[in-house]
Amino acid sequence: MAGTVIFTGANSSLGIPAVNRLLEQYPQSTLILTVRDPSKADVNTNRLRDVISQYPKANASIHQLDLADLSSVHKWAQSIAKDIDNNKYPPIRAIICAAYRWNLNRVPQSTVDGLDETLQISHVSHVALILRLIGKFRPDGGRVLLFSSDTHVPGGSVGERYPPGIPEDLNLLAKPIVYEDVFGRGFQNYGNTKLVITCWMYALNRYLQKDADLRNITAVAINPGNLVDSRALQTNTPWWYPYMQTFILRPFLPLHQLRDPTIRTAALAGIDVAELALNPAYAGERGFFTFLKKDQSSAESQDEVKQEALWAKSLEWAKITKDDTALKVVIE
Ligand SMILES: NC(=O)c1ccc[n+]([C@@H]2O[C@H](COP(=O)([O-])OP(=O)(O)OC[C@H]3O[C@@H](n4cnc5c(N)ncnc54)[C@H](OP(=O)(O)O)[C@@H]3O)[C@@H](O)[C@H]2O)c1
User: N or C: which end of the chain has fewer CB within 10 A?
Assistant: First the structure.
């Protein structure tokens, strides 16, 4: 199935096996793989290069894209749009937004754009990227794949100390607020961001469905599962997280699966991500998925009033106006 696949966080724990699956099963695709650090010093980008090198006919390129810098996201999306217009790349078949950030071991950080880092990297920059490129999909449409998680559901994750929730004042979501309980509030901030992403996915689908030219593009938010071998457990986490991963989670995976059937490896999640993005069996699907199965997201995420409020606020955070996107109606 020809078409461009844009993949942020392509060198992430699930990104690398997903790229492998795309290259293996969908070799006609043109892969535009974005990473924060494309240098030879980045071990994960080198792993991504190793995977690509196993497919000599691969049509894949690695691009530097720092999602913590909104102006470079806008610039990069504009350059990709131009390259599609000039036939350097074919029209888009899928945009996969895997990159994310959490802060569980230090006070929240703000980006150069003045937004909370977790919210901007995981959500706001993806909004800018998707809406800038939404007019460059194939005429028969395609898939926007967003990443949710069980942390978006109150009581959904063992790490939760404070339940996720959308505050009345949405500005609070973007403000890095310093709390004493860095772990608990950092975890809540991550859960809130995954809730925002899930809400935004429903709003995006509504706007796409109302647009005669874009209604074949469908958005899905996947819970890929809790990944025992992800490097997420080693990045911006307290000292005991990597120990828990090495001595408790990985060796006793089958036991943990009795408690939480969504615990699995990043390799399995990567396969599902590639399939949900491109397999025709899922074409036309919209909404929330756990693995490859349609599922119910949290009650709060299904509140249309909150979805619309977050849609409007996300446009503002992402600095997207009606002139920056092919969506005919950007706000109702
Ligand atoms: N791991 C889990 O158990 C789990 C559970 C549910 C949902 N998910 C979701 O699944 C997705 C992938 O998770 P994962 O575990 O595979 O992630 P991961 O291995 O921790 O990788 C995170 C990715 O985000 C990138 N990133 C961070 N800051 C960035 C920035 N400023 N600009 C661009 N990229 C940036 C990282 O690049 P650098 O390494 O260069 O920083 C890396 O590629 C995420 O959306 C996550 O929320 C994961």
Answer: C
Instruction: List helix spans (H) across 26-85.
Output: 43-53, 70-85
Phi, psi of 37 (to 5 degrees): -125, 105
Ligand 1 contact, 290 CB (< 6 A)? no
C-beta of 263 in contact with ligand 1 (< 6 A): no
Total domain count for the chain? 1
Q: Which of 214, 193, 221 is nearest to 97 (CA)?
A: 221
- Burial, 316: exposed, middle or buried (Cβ in 10 Å; 0-12, 13-18, 19+)? middle
DSSP state for residue 316 in the 8-state scheme = H
- Pair type for strands 263-264 and 226-227: parallel
Would residue 271 count as lying in a domain?
yes
Q: How far apart (Å, rounded) are the C-alpha atoms in residues 316 and 212?
A: 25
User: Is any ligand 1 atom within 6 A of the Cβ of residue 189?
Assistant: no
Q: Ligand 1: distance of its center to the CA of 283 in Å? A: 25
Q: Is 66 in the pocket of ligand 1 (CB under 6 A)?
A: yes
> Which tokens is 142 given?
């395609």
The answer to whether position 154 is within a domain reads yes
| Per-residue pLDDT at 331 | 83
Give domain status of residue 292, yes or no.
yes
| Per-residue pLDDT reduced to its tens digit, 27-80 | 999 999 999 999 999 999 999 999 999 999 999 999 999 999 999 999 999 999
Ligand 1 centroid to residue 251 C-alpha, Å? 23
